[in-house]
């Protein structure tokens, strides 16, 4: 069942294979690419900055049920499965993000441009809500890391950019009234879980620090370039973050089976390289990516590899992977309208 479920345990090995094949690992790059293998799991206190204690202890207890039954579907909305190791693995997944925050912060104190972090983790996290799991996600890895960056490193202002094809509803909920965490999500209009309408801009003192940009089906490279230049960059420049965290989902790729956008490997390269520039310009280069979705193993692994090339300031190899024949015309007029509307709502 695990292999047949789209959020399968083949995803990370497929990425690692591609990184090896394309010579993007420490073996080929020496100190240019650092791999952190040994890291601590997140503590329950780290996770409890985002999730309720009731949920955390309930999940821990459910593990003994999974031990008896092998595989259980855990409560909540959307198909999320658990095995007896899910609790421990989810803490480890959140711990990887925290470790990368530590490492990026430490490097930023030493040099002008610290390496970017990429947490190649599963399960993903951005749908997990404060009260429970949801949509393949157990703990909000990026939300836990955001709170950790604030509490442990005094990085008060955190910007979260979520370009997964689905709305990062869990992250959105966690920080909806928080003025110090800017959550910006692009996602396909009407896709799972149906949240993330444009007029939801945060509440209370957090009004204005949530930005949702739903993209019409068929949106691709052109749309995302406009969204970056006209919405993402100006939002970040105005917010002035101390660190940028990225929910990097690769399921907006044209080949992904779960959605209907038309990003290409080149789109993900553009995003990685532009976000890196923003981080350099605004927060001493402090930036960590978190793997979220991406369910076509081919497009997932080539797009993550191209993300790594952008991190290394190397040219994209997207032309090797992207076949323009697979694309159809983007709904440019509707994109422009959506961008105009969101800019108006947020006075950009
Ligand atoms: Zn997704």
Automatic annotation (TrEMBL):
Pfam families: Hist_deacetyl (PF00850). GO terms for biological process: epigenetic regulation of gene expression. Residues 5-309 form the Histone deacetylase domain. InterPro entries: HDACs, His_deacetylse_dom, His_deacetylse_dom_sf, Ureohydrolase_dom_sf. GO terms for cellular component: cytoplasm; histone deacetylase complex. GO terms for molecular function: histone deacetylase activity. Signal peptide: none annotated. It comes from the Eukaryota. Its cofactor is Zn(2+). This is Histone deacetylase domain-containing protein. It comes from Aegilops tauschii subsp. strangulata (Goatgrass).
